[in-house]
Specification:
It is a single chain. The chain is an alpha+beta fold. Helices cover 15% and strands 39% of the residues. It contains 4 helices and 13 strands. The strands form 4 sheets. A 6-stranded antiparallel β-sheet has the order 3-4-5-13-12-9. The chain is globular, with a radius of gyration of 19 Å. The two termini are 24 Å apart. The N terminus is likely disordered.
Length: 176
């Protein structure tokens, strides 16, 4: 599944990390895996290099779609929540909040040494979030290419060839 690479981070420290061959990579160290060619859905996670470079991940913060409900008072003055999806006159494209533009914040990764803000490499619609990785950041540390994935998106513009394959990514890391 993955080739191990070593990176000399200083004169005495070597970190081993894997690079999965069935993915594409961004320069910001995200991996992208096309999971449904017909629908164009893509699973997104972080490369193990982030952990090797920044240290253990202690928290993952994923984008959460905006709440489309409204706080309202009923006729008796009792507080409640009205879901805007039930309101009249709403357009069918009212899924505001689950759209992320190119270059907008996609995920925040807090490590033992830093906070890494990772922007979206393409405009996309968020379809699914991996809440387990938010609850347990060790998934990103221990299984970055498996259960440690971040989200599933449907890119509006996605061409696998614009991203690095595993060999190109390893070459890129060697130049850092």
């Amino acid at each position: 599944m993955a080739a191990l690479s070593e990176m000399n981070m200083s004169d005495s420290d070597y970190f081993e990390f894997g690079v999965a061959h069935d993915r594409r990579y961004t320069l910001e160290h995200l991996w992208l895996q096309l999971i449904d060619e017909k629908d164009g859905t893509v699973k997104v996670g972080m490369s193990e290099f982030l952990r090797a470079d920044y240290g253990d991940v202690v928290r993952v913060i994923l984008p959460h779609p905006q709440d489309t409900s409204e706080f309202v008072l009923d006729d008796e003055g009792t507080a409640g929540v009205r879901d805007n999806d039930e309101g009249e006159g709403r357009s069918e494209s009212s899924n505001a909040g689950d759209e992320i533009g190119i270059g907008e914040l996609l995920v925040t990764v807090r490590t033992v040494s830093d906070r890494v803000l990772i922007n979206s490499p393409f405009p996309c619609k968020v379809l699914e979030l991996n809440g387990e990785v938010e609850d347990n950041a060790d998934l990103a540390n221990d299984d970055a290419y498996g259960d440690g994935w971040f989200l599933i998106v449907k890119p509006h513009e996605f061409d696998e060839d614009q991203f690095l394959d595993a060999n190109e990514y390893v070459e890129y890391l060697g130049e850092l």
